[in-house]
Amino acid sequence: MSQQKENKASQLRKMFKKKGIIRIVGAHDGLSAKLVEKNGFDGVWASGLEISTSFAVPDANILTMSQYLEVAKTMNDAVSIPIVADCDTGYGNSNNVMYMVKKYESAGIAAVVIEDKQFPKVNSFIPGRQELAPLSEFVGKILAAKSVQEHPDFMVIARVEALIAGWGQEEALRRANAYVDAGADAILIHSKSKTPDEIIEFIHAWNNKSPLVVVPTTYSAVTAEELEKLGIKMVIYANHGIRASIKAMDMTFGAIAAYGTTKPIEKEIASMEEVFELQGMSVMKLMEKKYYRPQEPIKVIIPAAGSYEDEISLKDIMQDIPMPMIDISGKSLLQRQQETLNTLSIQDITVVGGHRGDKIQLDGVAVIQNNDYKNTRDLESIMCARDKLEGKVLICYSDILFDADVIDKLLKSMADISILADPTYVERAGKKPDMDLVSAENPPVFNKRRILSVAKTNYAVKIGTDIPEEQRHYEWTGITFLSSAGTQKIKDWYEKSKIKYANRPFHTAPNFKQASLTDLLQEMIDGGEKVAIVEITSGWMEVHTMENYKLSCELLAGK
Ligand code: SPV
Ligand code: MG
User: Fold this and answer.
1) What pTM value is reported for the model?
2) What span, in angstroms and rounded, lies between the C-alpha atoms of 392 and 499?
3) How far is the CA of 19 from the centre of ligand 2 (A)?
4) C-beta of 367 in contact with ligand 1 (< 6 A)
5) 68-96: pLDDT as tens digits
6) Which protein residue's CA is at the shortest distance from atom 2 of ligand 1?
């Protein structure tokens, strides 16, 4: 846990107790508040005028309390300096004031300022309708506000609008006195005069009865130093942020409209680096290094070295084209595989070529050559991509088309080694003698033509082309998923078996060099490793024969 930070109300209180003037600046969102802090000011004024303007509505209580509060909260979250919130008249009567104080204080706002005008107020610089509330009513609001605050350092500042409304010095003093007597922590004496004269007159008469706050919007020539000398405790530059941004945006948009390009104004506006810095991107990056544990990326290995010489129907097309590059209705098979994998955020794809491997090319796909492809089969091709056999790996044959959801289902498997298998092979069995089949610990449950997935994890007992008829439960799709531990196991068993079976038949292979992945998996199963079956009944097809090829072209036409 981070160290307990000082309450912002206490932070502000300390400033009020210390010597020197407090300077705060108006803002209307997290960004403008951050710029106030960046420039070294003591606090942020959550200005009613700025917030209203940012919504493009008049500063006349058009927005609701919760809208103002939401923005004040955003500002408070964006900065480490205190927020002094402009709460207009308190959004109603004393009941509304009590609710407002509770909400603002619990949101971490250091102080609220309420003004003694009638609800709904209008901005003090709008001529006409500057109606003051009766003194006693406003005293009631201050008493109400002070009665509900939780922390003694939270401040309620009373804003006297008598000079704005033209009621004169005497009324201003009468009110200020009454408000401080009711418990106000400071008085904001507001003026729309072009000079500070009436403020100075008030200060002298006030005689430091409580801290004074001013908003020198109309008497802007006065300096903070002069105000400090006069005894002012806090000065609010109330609306300069929004006015500056209006001008900057308007000029920028006008220039873009006029030039038809943003080039001439690029140097006039904040760079993207400044934008990122203000967002807190550099802090986020630091935190990311510390805490972010990204999902381990999945690598894909596609063994694609074979020439399909034994597949008479494809022999002609395959003579000059490797399987990954075969065109399926306008896109190569590999591109279709890549697009599907990319939808699952899988980008790291390596193809191991052999026969016409020079022709395998696709942006974003790495290609490795199995130079001994004529004497080897897919296991050796997979091992050519040894560098990629690290962490989570998906191994997929080059002649398989698949839907993203079946891969997604496979990737959810918690087993170290998982194969994607289809039990509906029964209907297609017999058509292809070299079909890779799987015999399972728990055969799939058939009820007429409906199939139930076996609920618990099912494991392969046998895998390969040589499974006796009565034990054939699934067709293997040619797709395998390995966890990090699974990848390590594959490598370990490969090395072990290579020595053990050198120049000897290896399951269905006449020798180890000509082994398939299924031979290695069978060796592993026999040695006690678990190969989990992830069952699917659709969402994949192989492009293994001319018949398959034509069907895939038909199915994917226009896609
Ligand atoms: C505000 O910023 O909303 C104020 C100060 O109330 S002023 O607009 O100067 O009255
Ligand atoms: Mg205001």
Assistant:
1) 0.68
2) 26
3) 27
4) no
5) 999 999 999 999 999 999 999 999 999 99
6) 47
Exposure string (b/e) for 435-471, b if CB count within 10 Å is 16 or more?
Answer: bbbbbbeebbeeeeeebeebeeebbbbbbbbebeeee
Q: What is the mean pLDDT of each run of 10 residues along the chain (559 residues)?
A: 80 98 98 98 98 98 98 98 98 98 98 97 91 97 98 98 97 98 98 97 97 98 98 98 98 97 96 96 94 89 84 76 92 96 96 94 96 94 96 96 96 96 72 78 69 72 90 93 98 96 92 95 97 94 84 84
Tell me the backbone φ, ψ of residue 186, rounded to 5 degrees.
-160, 165
Q: Is 124 in the pocket of ligand 1 (CB under 6 A)?
A: yes
Q: Which ligand 1 atom is at minimum distance from the Cα of 88?
A: 6
CA of 207 relative to ligand 2 center, distance in Å: 26
Say if strands 437-440 and 458-464 run parallel, antiparallel, or are unpaired.
antiparallel
Q: What is the pLDDT of residue 427?
A: 59
The response to whether residue 303 sits with its C-beta less than 6 Å from ligand 1 reads: no
The contacts of residue 165 (CB under 8 Å, 6+ apart) are 117, 130, 131, 132
**How do beta strands 299-304 and 186-189 pair?**
unpaired
**456 vs 534: CA distance, rounded Å:** 10
363 tagged catalytic: no
Query: In the numeric block, which tokens belong to residue 53?
Result: 């303007």
Q: Is ligand 1 within 6 A of the CB of residue 217?
A: yes
d(Cα 304, Cα 294) in Å, to the nearest integer?
A: 30
Q: One of 59, 88, 153, 378 is an active-site residue; which one?
A: 59
Task: Please give the distance, rounded to the nearest whole angstrom, from the Cα atom of residue 190 to the centre of ligand 1.
Answer: 9
| Atom in ligand 1 nearest the alpha carbon of residue 115 | 6
Tell me, in angstroms, the distance from the centre of ligand 2 to residue 47's CA. Answer: 6
pLDDT per position as a tens digit, 426-471: 655 554 567 899 999 988 776 555 555 655 789 999 999 989 888 8
Q: Which ligand is nearest to the CA of 215?
A: 1
Nearest 5°: phi and psi at 463? -145, 135
Strands 331-332 and 327-328: antiparallel
Pair of tokens at residue 368: 């490795």
* Ligand 1 mean position, distance from CA 261 (Å): 37
Alpha-carbon dihedral angle through residues 279, 285, 287, 290, given to the nearest 10 degrees = 180
Under DSSP, is residue 45 helix (H, G, I), strand (E, B) or coil? Answer: strand
3-state class (DSSP) for residue 559: coil
d(CA 421, CA 423): 7
Q: Which 8-state DSSP code applies to residue 135?
A: H
Ligand 1 site, residue 189, Cβ cutoff 6 A: no
Interaxial angle between packed helices 168-181 and 135-148, expressed in degrees from 0 to 180 and rounded to the nearest 10: 30
What is the reported pLDDT for 550?
86
Cα(128)–Cα(86) distance, rounded to whole angstroms? Answer: 21
Question: Is any atom of ligand 1 closer than 6 Å to the C-beta of 552?
Answer: no
